[in-house]
Specification:
The structure is a single chain. The C terminus is likely disordered. Helix content is 61%, strand content 1%. The chain is built from 15 helices and 2 strands. It starts with 5 loop residues before the first helix and ends in a 12-residue tail after the last helix.
Length: 301
């Protein structure tokens, strides 16, 4: 009696099981989100940008959450911040949804990947994170880096040097107009705020003993995949929506793991990618060295 065909099991999971898994976790997340205010991150970002435009420090708070992103994040939000508040929030949520759709389209994923739970989290809150991957993929990396400074990590590791150079120039040009002095002076406090707001984060930095394992896993993933995985796996104070940055590198098994919002699971996802990459490489080598079947009418000896 033979066991199940693992290839068929993986194919079934990738086509059906993963969609169900995404739907279940997204439903659980939405059940907790609907009791709060939609567009929360959008309001926080826009309040910070308006404060900066008014000449004040942007490190504002809404309820228990405080804006703590680096100053460049303010620049792309200026055109939205000058709009009436409710219109600005709606626009941020719409842009987050467009970012999710664009990511799916550019990566040629099935539409049910829109149920990827970090997408649901990012869109509900109007967080610009969902725009980062599509902006990088279409060559607008500098905008992505201004929205989220850690976007430079995949840009560097995937060798997008022109985008990195343009980002560097833009950072220098905008530096005199941005509140860098205030940010540097408050850096320790703002870092502590991020640590608290993220409950220590989901990356390996939440469990320092995982850091060496995370680094090894990223190396085994290969440079290209490691570029997309590095932030969710190693960036301090990571939040759940950071995982959307890993989408270009994920396998179905890794995707199923990384959507679980438990510290260190991003490292397990990277390990899954590394194992899958090794198995794929081995299968290709075996196929390349396998003797060709005998021609019709001939018998191999």
């Amino acid at each position: 009696m033979t066991g199940p065909d693992l290839g068929l099991v993986r194919a079934w999971f990738a086509r059906y099981g993963l969609a169900v898994w995404f739907a279940v976790i997204s439903a659980m997340r939405l059940s907790s989100l609907v009791t709060g205010e939609w567009g929360f991150d959008a309001r926080l970002y826009l309040d910070a940008t308006r404060a900066w435009l008014a000449g004040a420090d942007p490190w504002v708070s809404i309820e228990t959450q405080r804006f703590a992103a680096p100053p460049p994040s303010l620049v792309p939000l200026v055109p939205i911040a000058i709009l009436p508040e409710e219109i600005g929030v709606v626009l941020m949520v719409v842009l987050a949804a467009i970012g999710a759709v664009a990511t799916i389209r550019l990566l040629r994923l099935p539409w049910w990947w829109l149920l990827f739970p970090p997408f649901i989290d990012g869109v509900w809150n109007g967080n610009p994170q969902t725009l980062v991957v599509p902006l990088i993929l279409v060559g607008a990396g500098p905008i992505a880096a201004f929205l989220k400074i850690y976007a430079l990590v995949p840009m560097v590791l995937t060798l997008r040097w022109r985008a990195v150079a343009v980002t560097g120039v833009l950072l220098l040009v905008t530096a005199p107009f941005l509140p860098w002095a205030s940010y540097v002076a408050r850096f320790g406090d703002l870092s502590a705020v991020l640590e608290t707001q993220s409950d220590g984060g989901l990356s390996a930095t939440a469990l320092p003993w995982l850091i060496p394992i995370a680094i090894i896993a990223l190396i085994l993933c290969g440079r290209e995949r490691a570029g997309w995985l590095a932030v969710p796996v190693l960036w301090p104070a990571t939040q759940w929506y950071y995982s959307t940055l890993a989408l270009p590198a994920l396998t179905p098994i890794a995707a199923a793991i990384i959507v679980v919002p438990i510290p260190g699971f991003a490292v397990l996802a990277a390990i899954a990618v590394a194992v899958e990459r090794r198995n794929t490489t081995r299968e290709r080598l075996v196929a390349a060295w396998r003797p060709a079947p005998p021609a019709d009418g001939m018998v191999s000896t």
